[in-house]
Amino acid sequence: MLGAIIAPGFFSSSAVQLAAAVGALVAIVAGAVGVFTVIRGQAFAGEALGDMGAAGGSSAYLIGIAPLWGFIGFAVAAAGAMELVGIQRARGRDLATGIVLGAGFGLAALLLYLGTTLENTTGAASTVLFGSAFGLQSSILPLVLGFGALALGIIIALYRPLLLCSLSPELGAARGLPVRLIGVAYLIAMALAVALSAVTIGAILSTALLMGPAATALALTSRPGRAILTAAAIGVGAMWLGLVLAYDSFDWRPIHHGWPVSFFVVTLVLIAYLAARVKARR
Amino acid sequence: MSGQALRVDGASVRLAGRSVLDDVSFQIGEDEFTGLIGSNGAGKTTLLRVILGLQALSAGGAEVLGGRSIGYVPQKFLLDPDMPLRGRDLVGLGLDGHRLGLPRPSRARRALIDEMLDAVDARSFGEARVGRLSGGEQQRILIAHALISRPGLLLLDEPLANLDLRSAQEVVRLLARIAREQRIAILISAHDVNPLLPVMDRVVYLAQGRAASGTTEEVVRSDVLSRLYRHHVDVLRVHGRVVVIAGTGEDERAALEHSEHTAVELV
């Protein structure tokens, strides 16, 4: 039965093992951070961070370093830029985000163009934008662990103040909490989560992993802590099943070349979300 | 003999060149129920923010006395219905929402949250998602959130707005009971004085940033309000309700404000 789903060689492939380990770590971080993204209504900001990450990943290719550094550098810088141009004000938020988002894409267009023409790295665009989970290098694992721990650390340390300020900045301020500082710390955690997701499923799709499992979890549980655990579990499940299907697809028609992991992961996330909404409505 | 919970002394706030609060002075006793009455834009929210320490004064002072902590219920608290948060979670955040790290569930914490839910008659919907509760139910949860840290002064910003008459009366009765049982000073802002009449010990009437304070009988009078509005105002008492009517006046803005105000009170 299992053999019919999982193609021979799946568990023994080191590329698969690495993808599964990195994918799980990334999905856990994205799930935990994503629940707050949904609560705070910052999905659009997450998208902008991902697009800025695309520019970062492209520039990393240009100068020949691991794309993760580019994703993280640019996403964190974008988080700072959004804070400066007024993401804390509800009305300024969409504008600030949209401007950063547009700039990120424009920059990515230039850098990818330069990369493909100057360096002849033809796969770069696809890897940066849509990820390549099976093409990861093992040196990335400690980086993913480190940055993932940092993002999770921010969420765990600020869990209660962040929850309170996300529900109502007024309530937070009345308790004497530094609402703006907490918002900045959260933006950094979100930038890290988006950058890590970009490594596996690409910069453009990274918000799918951030938002999808979290939105699904919100439909399934009415408690914040459980929502985080559920989102992480859904993310890991979608990631691993996506890897299995992508591995299987090497034998599929028409190209016998394997379909992108990101396609499967994002599709599974969508299916989980729809199923949860249907269940919640009953 | 009761001590003082709050002293506001000549408080003035100017925002963008406009005077929002102008030499406001009043005091609140330690278990007094005080209504902060005024129409929209009279400076009620600004005054509450001053007391919370979130708004700096350009002159004067506002002092919470005797080391009392403040509980606060903000205005217009709208939560998404899908928010993964139960009423009791929000009450729990009132206890330790400012602390770092994950919450540590304990029997004592649970019991305290239950006690607060009971105090606001919210036990029956404490397990439901906050965003799916009615306006009056959310208001109760927020009051429990503010009360659980045992404040000596409870500030509520327009808690009766958006509530139907019956829910508003229930919230007022509940607050009066809490003030009595827990010996807590309550300052509640409202645009209509009537729902608060049965329970108020003191009223602070705000108009155009200026204030008059005292008992209802001392303040809600034609001569006092006319002086406050700088414009002739009639105060009528009909079937235990108060109706404030602007006379034919020289100050058109006050007249407009008042006709609006009167319409609300006559409903």
Keywords:
heterodimer; A: 282 residues; mainly alpha; B: 267 residues; alpha/beta; six-stranded mixed β-sheet; three-stranded antiparallel β-sheet; 11 strands
SSE blueprint:
The complex is a heterodimer of chains A (282) and B (267).
Chain A: H1 2-5, H2 14-40, H3 43-63, H4 67-84, H5 90-119, H6 124-130, H7 140-157, H8 159-167, H9 169-174, H10 179-201, H11 206-220, H12 224-248, H13 261-281
Helix pairs in contact in A: 2-7, 2-10, 2-11, 2-12, 3-4, 3-5, 3-6, 3-10, 3-11, 4-5, 4-10, 6-10, 7-10, 10-11, 11-12, 11-13, 12-13
Chain B: E1 4-15, E2 18-29, E3 33-37, H1 44-52, E4 59-64, E5 70-73, H2 87-96, H3 107-119, H4 135-147, E6 153-156, H5 165-181, E7 185-190, E8 202-207, E9 210-214, H6 216-219, H7 222-229, E10 233-238, E11 241-246, H8 252-266
Can you walk me through this structure?
The complex is a heterodimer of chains A (about 280) and B (about 270). Chain A has about 280 residues and is mainly α. Chain A has 13 helices and no strands. Chain A has helices at about 1-5, 15-40, 45-65, 65-85, 90-120, 125-130, 140-155, 160-165, 170-175, 180-200, 205-220, 225-250, 260-280. In chain A, helix 2 packs antiparallel against helix 10, helix 3 packs antiparallel against helix 11 and helix 12 (about 225-250) crosses helix 13. The longest helix of chain A has 30 residues, at about 90-120. The model of chain A has no long low-confidence stretch (mean pLDDT about 85). Chain B has about 270 residues and is of the alpha/beta class. Chain B is built from 8 helices and 11 strands. In chain B, the strands form 3 sheets. Chain B has a 6-stranded mixed β-sheet with strand order 5-6-7-3-8-9, sandwiched between helices. In chain B, a hairpin with a 2-residue loop joins strand 1 (about 5-15) and strand 2. Chain B is globular. The relative contact order of chain B is 0.16. The interface of A and B includes residues 172 and 173 of A.
